[in-house]
Amino acid sequence: MKLSIVIPVYNSSRYLDDCLNSLLAQNMNAAEYELICVNDGSTDDSLKILNEYSNLHTNIKVISQENKGHSAARNTGLRAATGKYVWFVDSDDFIEENSISTIINCMDEQEIDFLTIGLCNVSNESHFIPTNKQNSIVFEKQPHNISCSGNRIFLREILSENNISWSTDVHSLDDVLFLFYVQLHSKKSFYTPSVNYFYRESPNSISRTKSSESTIKHINGLRNLINYYHGELAIQKEKKGNDSVIKNIDARVNLAVKSMLLDAIFVYDFKERKMLLEDLKSKNQYPYKLIRYDLKPKISVKRTIMDWSMLLFPIEFYYQVYGLILRKFVKLK
């Protein structure tokens, strides 16, 4: 078995045909790759559709469980995976036809343990349409704005040997943490835009909606993310790890703390923010170092000004005054 494709499924009946058809439209023997579909307590016709496909295709396996969330479903699929490589594909996304064989042959030949392919955002109205495109691999420098996990293929051995799985306590940041650990242990990674992963983001997705409830969940997720980073930072320092790795983790801690402090402005009052700062101080996570990244111009003037305004968050007085002013202008639902 060369490749295991893990597909967490929750109420995805509208898009499942696109996803599965794209994964089956491949010039690769069905015995060489498997589709592990984890039905995470769907209440629509998703399970019915999955069973119909599995009855027609021997390389489709269906696992059903009570609803435990996206990350838990991925972990269930990962435990069942037997392929040399593993790919986590979301059930509302799709990939290019005849691309899997090209990807796997390239990873084998180049001994790649972590490959990132191109990412293409599509609307909800988009569908998988075969184009008879011939794929070839061309490597390029990876852009910084790719944060999706669906366009990544991993050597399964890296995950098993380093006990890497999907965290269920970091809210919508599970991709960030999972990729962090993979990058930490990867020996050879590449990026190729030659093959595309088509990513469908709903207007109502967690990453696009902002409410008091979702913001509090995001803060709690960031708290746990910071603790994971801080724990790994201590490990790397104790074993006198690579300086660049230590600096990278330290920067991740600082950026996560900054993000949490910004979110806290919208849902915590002055006293609650004071308590948050005291908690961070007790863990040596605040005040953090000034983040030079905040000085760099961003993709928009608005984002640049926002980052500049948060540059002095490590100064407690400035942060609290900033929070009092910002809360007067921005209200969450």
TrEMBL record:
<dbReference type="InterPro" id="IPR029044">
    <property type="entry name" value="Nucleotide-diphossugar_trans"/>
</dbReference>
<keyword id="KW-1133">Transmembrane helix</keyword>
<feature type="domain" description="Glycosyltransferase 2-like">
    <location>
        <begin position="4"/>
        <end position="142"/>
    </location>
</feature>
<protein>
    <submittedName>
        <fullName>Glycosyltransferase</fullName>
        <ecNumber>2.4.-.-</ecNumber>
    </submittedName>
</protein>
<dbReference type="Pfam" id="PF00535">
    <property type="entry name" value="Glycos_transf_2"/>
</dbReference>
<keyword id="KW-0472">Membrane</keyword>
<keyword id="KW-0328">Glycosyltransferase</keyword>
<dbReference type="InterPro" id="IPR001173">
    <property type="entry name" value="Glyco_trans_2-like"/>
</dbReference>
<keyword id="KW-0812">Transmembrane</keyword>
<keyword id="KW-0808">Transferase</keyword>
<feature type="transmembrane region" description="Helical">
    <location>
        <begin position="308"/>
        <end position="326"/>
    </location>
</feature>
<dbReference type="GO" id="GO:0016757">
    <property type="term" value="F:glycosyltransferase activity"/>
</dbReference>
